[in-house]
Write a structure and sequence with these properties.
alpha/beta, 11 strands
């Protein structure tokens, strides 16, 4: 089953409470989706398990009877995503570079960026007979992007690939490029957070970030601070009285 842009907006409206989409955002998003000159989305994946993509795609397919590929390609103008796009090889890479050359795109990055060995621990693609590292692609596409969204812990902060001895020299996108990024943290992050961030950007809204580059809309409080069993003071140990208490 396929979904029209109108159908996608109905889906967003039905999910507004969950996603935190205000009516004004939905109206702005509708205008953005009707605009053929609106920003495209390039989704890159470096060293990661693809869990962020899987979480996002599972959310779309489970919450609405839609064709996920149709939503991503025809509704939010996703021009490159190696996992779901029909094109392959030079045709796929050409689509990414065509979008890059247009200069009007939102860049989504999933996965850490290897910097050791000249970045050769992870290859992004082979185009026109030339292998290109993920490091090179990130360094090329990030500066020209209207906004950069890091999906998951790996692209946001290095994540599991950067733990331990880190022989591949994994770094976050911000470390590699120096560019301010919108870090949708989590392993994987809640797919609703991804939808909200993309929708806000396509609607032309500015997203408030905390000191870690995370959207304050989702990261302004902790799970502990919202626990109904905690007392008035912060605590870290579960007590005998079925409530939190200090050590």
């Amino acid at each position: 089953m396929q979904i029209s842009r109108r159908g996608f907006l109905k889906y967003c409206s039905a999910s507004a409470a969950t996603l935190g989409l205000a009516p004004a955002t939905l109206r702005a998003l509708a205008a953005a989706l009707r605009n053929p000159a609106g920003p495209n989305v390039i989704w890159l994946e470096g060293l990661a398990c693809s869990g962020c993509s899987v979480s996002f795609l599972n959310h779309l397919s489970s919450t609405a009877p839609v064709d996920v590929a149709d939503v991503l390609v025809n509704v939010i103008n996703l021009t490159y995503h190696k996992t779901i796009m029909a094109a392959a090889g030079d045709m796929a890479v050409g689509a990414a570079y065509n979008t890059f050359n247009s200069g009007n795109y939102v860049l989504v990055v999933e996965g850490g960026v290897p910097t050791a060995f000249g970045g050769r621990a992870c290859w992004a693609w082979r185009n026109a007979g030339h292998d290109t590292t993920f490091l090179n692609v990130v360094q090329q596409l990030v500066p020209a992007a209207a906004a950069v969204i890091c999906i998951g812990e790996c692209s946001s902060f290095g994540g599991i690939p950067a733990s331990g001895s880190n022989p591949a020299g994994i770094q976050s996108v911000r470390q590699v490029t120096g560019r301010t990024t919108i870090n949708v943290a989590g392993c994987p992050p809640h797919p609703g957070w991804v939808v909200w961030v993309i929708a806000e950007l396509l609607a032309g809204h500015t997203i408030a970030l905390d000191t870690y580059g995370r959207p304050t809309h989702f990261f302004s409080s902790t799970v502990h601070s919202q626990c109904p069993l905690r007392n008035a003071e912060d605590a870290s140990q579960w007590g005998q009285e079925n409530r939190c208490k200090e050590d």
